Amino acid sequence: PLSPKEVFLTRDDIGIILINQCVAELIRHAVEAHTRSLPAVLEIPSKEHPYDAARDSVLRRARGMFTADDLR
To answer: Which residues are listed as membrane-spanning (predicted)?
Structure first.
């Protein structure tokens, strides 16, 4: 049987998974291990916890794709 994480990541009718960053921290290993483009896993802030860009896996990957010259 598939785990709940695997069920969401393998469904072809899901393109984006929104997850609070504080919850993503609880399953950081799974968030970091997901490398496929779909479904995209996007971390969002919650009312109770401030957003920390340094912990956002998508933002960290995006930063590694571009240099300062690319953004000029």
So the answer is: none
Contact 55, 23 (CB under 8 A): no
Which residue carries 């993503």 as its tokens? 24
Look-up of token digits 């996007």: 42
Q: Does the predicted model carry a pTM greater than 0.85?
A: no
Q: Are 15 and 9 in contact (CB under 8 A)?
A: no
Which residues pair with residue 16 across a beta bridge?
A: 40
Q: Side chain identity at 5, as an amino acid letter?
A: K
pLDDT in tens, 28-38: 888 888 888 88
